[in-house]
Design a protein that fits this description.
Number of helices: 13
CATH architecture of the domain at 1-94: Alpha Horseshoe
Structural class: mainly alpha
Oligomer: single chain
Order of helices and strands: HHHHHHHHHHHHH
Helix content: 55-70%
CATH class of the domain at 1-94: Mainly Alpha
């Protein structure tokens, strides 16, 4: 499923000229009047508004107010992505990676993920890390995977924090370090991720009480510093 917080995007990208349409579209979306929401966003999208194009792509991808149509979703995402919308670029990466509406193409997925990641999109950074870890569309490179996971993890993305914990736990792209693995699993667990809780406890079984205490202290410092003191 295409995952992004549409409410946050709606408030972030509203322009003065189209504020009325956006507000009406979002109000309609919230009351599940998807047909009206689509109509309002289409008005803005036809004027070249990249964020409205993104939302229309999302509706076609999810089948909200329209028959689910991956090819049509891809078309709208492409319009927005070419104008630099990072979430549209990320969603294109997903569609190429999964082969939704287009032939599966990992290299093309990487291209779109990279464009979104360069703009700071945390999900794109994480997925780019996955591509490097698994060698999909790029040569397998654990160090590069760790680099992208770290960028996303420091933005607070729990999945990237989990992935970084795995890399430290297995010693891929970094020296094996149970303390840092525990730290990142513990941080990801704050978001309620069950796999992170499970892996944290597995790693803890390989650690001394002093090491666990150190990992917990590092996790607190990392989070209290807004992820600026995590190394």
């Amino acid at each position: 499923m295409v995952r992004f917080v549409i409410a946050a995007l709606c408030s972030l990208f509203i322009t003065a000229a189209l504020a009325g349409d956006y507000e009406d579209a979002w109000a309609a979306y919230e009351r599940k009047d998807y047909a009206t929401a689509l109509k309002k966003w289409q008005s803005a999208a036809q004027q070249g508004n990249r964020d409205a194009q993104l939302f229309i792509g999302m509706m076609y991808s999810e089948g909200l107010g329209v028959i689910q149509d991956y090819k049509e979703a891809l078309r709208w995402y492409l319009l927005a992505a070419k104008q630099g919308n990072d979430k549209a670029q990320y969603n294109l990466g997903l569609m190429y990676s999964k082969g939704e509406g287009v032939a599966q193409d990992y290299k093309e997925a990487v291209r779109w993920y990279r464009l979104a990641a360069a703009q700071g999109d945390d999900e794109a950074q994480n997925n780019l890390g996955v591509m490097y870890q698994n060698g999909r569309g790029v040569a397998q490179d654990y160090k590069e995977a760790v680099r992208w996971y770290r960028l996303a993890a420091k933005q607070g993305l729990a999945l990237a924090q989990y992935n970084l914990g795995v890399m430290y736990g297995e010693g891929r792209g970094v020296l094996q370090d149970h303390i840092r693995a525990h730290m990142w699993f513990n941080i990801a667990a704050v978001s309620g991720d069950k796999d992170s809780v499970k892996n944290r406890d597995i790693v803890a079984s390989k650690m001394t009480a002093q090491q666990i205490e150190q990992a917990q202290r590092m996790a607190r410092e990392c989070m209290s510093s807004n992820f600026t003191k995590c190394d």
